[in-house]
Amino acid sequence: MNTNMMGSLTTQDTRAIGVNSPPNGGEEELCGLDRLAKLKRLEGTGNDGNLHWKWYENEVPGRRIDNVWNTVMKTSNKRYVVQVANTAVERCILMATDPGDLVLDPTCGSGVTPHMAEHWGRRWIGIDAGRVSIAVTRRHLLTTTHPWYLTRDGGSDPAAGLDVETMQRVSAATLAYDTVNDPENTIYLVDRPKQDTRRSRLTRPFTIESASPYAYLPFSEDPAAPATDIGAAEGQNAQRLLEALIAHPICDASGQEVLSVVETTPWPRGQLVSHEADCTAPGRETRLAAAIMLAASDITVSAEMIARAASEARRARHDISDLIIVASAFEDAASADAGAVRVHKVAASRDLQIPGLGNEPDAGAFTLLGEPDVFCDRDGEGNLVVELAGYDTYDPSTGRVKQSSGADVDCWMVDTDHDGTGFFPRLVYLPAFKRGDPQIKRLVKSLGKDLDNTAAEALCGTTSQPFPPPRPGNNVAVKIITRTGAEMTAIAHPPA
Question: How far is CA 284 from CA 259, 279, 288, in A?
Answer without folding.
Answer: 10, 10, 9
